[in-house]
Amino acid sequence: MKLAALILSTALMPSIAFASSTSCESKKYHQYIDASLSWYESLVTLAVDKEPDLKEVGQWFLEGRKHHFELNRDAFDWYLANDKDKLALSLPVESWLNLTQQDVKALSEEQNSDLGKAAKLAFDDRQSKPHPKNYALRSAFAELLTHPGNIEKPLNAYNEKMTALTEMECQ
C-alpha cells in the first residue's frame, strides 16, 4: 500500500509542479494587466482633471483599454492551459502574449465562450471609428508625458509594480 502511494505521488509531481508554474505565470500576467489598467486610469484622470471636457472621450478610451487588456488576460490563461507555444514566456511579462489582428478576429468568431466574447469587444473597438475628441485626448496625454512631474506618482506606482513583477520568478 505504501509503495502504491509513493508511486502515485511521484507520478503526480510533474503535474503538480506544472500547475504551480502555470498558476504563478497566470498570477504574474494578471498583475501586469492590473498595473497597466491602473496606469491608464491614472493617465485619463490626470488628463480630465486638466481638461474636464475630455471626460467622455476619456471614458471611451478607458473602455477600449479595458476590452483590450481583459481579452489579453483571458487569452493568456487560455493559451497557458491549451497552447503554451503561443506564449513567449522567456521575454518580459508585457511581451508574453502577442495577439495579431487575425488572432483577435478568429477568437471573436467563437461567441460561445467568455474568451470569444472578450475578443469580439476588442475586435469591434479596433474596427470602430475613433471618438471625435480622440486626438484632443492623445494631445493631453502627450502634454502630461512631456512633464514628468505631472505624472510622477502614477508612473512611480506603475514602475514599482513592474519592478516587482520582473523580480517574481515562476519555476
Characterization of the model:
It is a single chain. This protein has one domain. It contains six helices and no strands. The protein is mostly helical and 171 residues long. The N terminus is likely disordered. It is 77% helix and 0% strand. Helix 1 packs antiparallel against helix 2, helix 1 packs antiparallel against helix 6 and helix 2 packs across helix 4. It is flat.
Number of domains: 1
Count of separate DSSP helical elements: 6
Mean pLDDT: 88
Summarize the biggest pleated sheet: none
- N to C succession of SSEs: HHHHHH
Alpha-beta classification = mainly alpha
Number of strands: 0
Q: Alpha-carbon distance between the termini? A: 32 Å
> Percent helix among the residues?
over 70%
The low-confidence parts are: 1-20
> In percent terms, what proportion of residues is strand?
under 5%
Question: Secondary structure elements and their pairing?
Answer:
Elements: H1 2-50, H2 55-82, H3 101-108, H4 114-127, H5 134-145, H6 148-167
Helix pairs in contact: 1-2, 1-5, 1-6, 2-4, 3-4
